[in-house]
Amino acid sequence: MSAPSEVTLKALSGKWIMNKTLSDDVDPLLQLQGVGWFLRKAIAYATITLNTAEYTESDPPHHTHIDISQTATGGISGTTEKRTLDWEMRPHKDGIFGEVKGKSRWVELENYKSETGKGDDFLKGGWLVEEGGKMVQSWVESVGGGWTAEQIWGFEKIDGARYHARHVVVKKGDEWKEARLVYDFQKKSDA
Prior knowledge:
The structure is a single chain. The chain has helices at about 25-30, 35-45, 120-125; strands spanning about 15-20, 50-55, 65-70, 80-85, 90-95, 100-110, 135-140, 145-160, 160-170, 175-190. Strand 2 and strand 3 (about 65-70) form a beta hairpin. The chain is globular. The protein has a ten-stranded antiparallel beta sheet with strand order 4-3-2-1-10-9-8-7-6-5. About 25% of the residues are buried. The chain is about 10% helix and about 50% strand. It is mostly beta strands. The mean pLDDT is about 95.
């Protein structure tokens, strides 16, 4: 289901389900990240649900937080991501990717350049310009896996409807893969 106009990157709290029809195949990215064949196939058939809570600190410097509880059908372990949009690196243990460290921030597309120099056009392209052109940028480094993943989050018009999407570029050595992830809005929730 498309996202209503009142659901924005600054009001993202709610339940989202990955739309496998509109999303690109994530198998090449997962393979580059070292995820085994069996788990990749399970992910391909699983329903991925994101329960998102977004809030802003009441005390200065008023950073935005986006906490995501991700679940999947088929017995795949879920994970909880706690993102603070301040571009500070934080460790995280992920049920699929293991030990990683990541950082997130607000970024303006007109000034954006990817961290790796790979996939700039893909990461920047296709977005609806909302909220002054600010998007969410996420950067993750595997601890010991040798890969990085960069994401830009926003909203896109797809087949005439507005959807929350993420453009993802995974890089390992000289090899890199990209995919667009599209999410169906289910319901709004309080942060």
